[in-house]
Amino acid sequence: MNFRPLLFAVVIAGASLAVSAGRAAEPPISAAGPAIRAPQPGMAVFSSDGQNVGTVESIDATQDGRITAVNIAAGGFLGLGRKLVAIPEGRFGLVGTVVRASLTADEIGKLPHQGP
After folding, report:
1. 4-13, 81-90, 93-102, 103-112: lowest mean pLDDT where?
2. Which of 20, 27, 44, 54 is surrounded by the most beta carbons within 10 Å?
3. E strands of 1-116, at which residues?
């Protein structure tokens, strides 16, 4: 008796079950995660000309929660020569999971250093 066709069918069925089981643990694509409404530390910051200019270090806000500036670590190479600059209110926005500045990379590079 030739068991190859039966063995092949069992292997295929097992593989299909494994794939199905793996998918069951994943959340559906349409499931929405928590909405991000404000820039968060660690988010990438992109200039108006599309360059990644740094990451959000901190947020300046009023007591009522209005964001007045986003402080970013900008410039440098491998962490050296980076400076902390503030992008003021009205000059940035949240686009998905990144911050988009309305300033060019050159303009951001010319912002004054914040802090000590």
Report:
1. 4-13
2. 54
3. 44-46, 52-61, 67-74, 83-88, 92-95, 98-101
Q: pLDDT tens digit string along 29-68?
A: 444 555 567 889 999 999 999 999 999 999 999 999 899 9
CATH of the domain at 89: 2.30.30.240
Domain that holds residue 104: 44-109
- C-alpha distances out from residue 15 to 9, 22, 115, Å: 10, 11, 58
Q: Structure tokens of 60?
A: 């300046």
- Domains contained in the chain, number: 1
- Which pLDDT band, with edges at 50, 70 and 90, does 74 fall under? confident
Give domain status of residue 15, yes or no. Answer: no
Q: Whole-prediction pTM value? A: 0.65
Dmax (CA) for the chain in angstroms is 83
Domain assignment of residue 93, yes or no: yes
The verdict on residue 61 lying in a domain is yes
